[in-house]
Amino acid sequence: MALPFIPTYLQLQTVRASAALELLSAWDTATELYCPSFEFVTFYLSYTEGAASGIFEFMLEVSPYTVDLAVGQSWFQQGIVAGGGVVVATDTTSLTQREDLSYGAVGAAIENFVYGPCEFRGTIQRLRMSCRETAAGTPLTPGTVHIVATFA
């Protein structure tokens, strides 16, 4: 049987090896991926709850720098904007905040989902994605997460 065709520009990288999350809702140590010149990234996440009602969070951070700066301004988290009300002849103030994303399992079996594609158009050098079992989930029996990403 012939292997499927995979374009040479598509690159698969492991973002997080399959492992249990940290106890007590602690963020794990994320693996840095170098991705200069890539335009898009799509994440493939697999979650198995550690106990009923498991919920985990993930946080995507990107860096325009090839190495960390000494002043701690190297990593930038995705943001979300809530548009303010528009009134004629009045400036509008919108709200923006850093964004974490939560996923709650619907069953005991492994659950797979896709996040993205995220469009970066070659503007970042590195990315990382941290995960944790949420306090609203099962922080004393955290689930298992595995993440891979394709870059194009």
Number of helices: 0
Number of strands: 11
The SSE string, one letter per element, is EEEEEEEEEEE
Q: Level of helix content?
A: under 10%
Q: Measure the end-to-end span.
A: 26 Å
Instruction: State mean pLDDT (0 to 100 scale).
Output: 90
Largest sheet: 5 strands, antiparallel
Unreliable residue runs: none
Q: What general outline do the C-alpha atoms trace?
A: globular
Using the CA coordinates, give the radius of gyration. 18 Å
- The class by helix and strand makeup works out as mainly beta
Task: Please report which band the strand proportion falls in: under 5%, 5-15%, 15-25%, 25-35%, 35-45% or over 45%.
Answer: over 45%
Report a brief summary of the structure.
This protein is mainly beta. It is built from no helices and eleven strands.
Structure report:
- The strands form three sheets. Strands 2, 4, 5, 8 and 10 form a five-stranded antiparallel beta sheet that branches. Strands 1-11-3-9 form a four-stranded antiparallel beta sheet, with no helix packed on it. It has a two-stranded antiparallel sheet with strand order 6-7.
- It has no helices and eleven strands.
- The protein has strands at 11-20, 33-34, 40-48, 55-63, 76-77, 79-82, 95-98, 101-104, 111-119, 126-133, 144-151.
- The chain has a domain at 37-67 and 102-152.
- The radius of gyration is 18 Å and the shape is globular.
- It is 0% helix and 45% strand.
- By secondary structure, it is an all-beta fold.
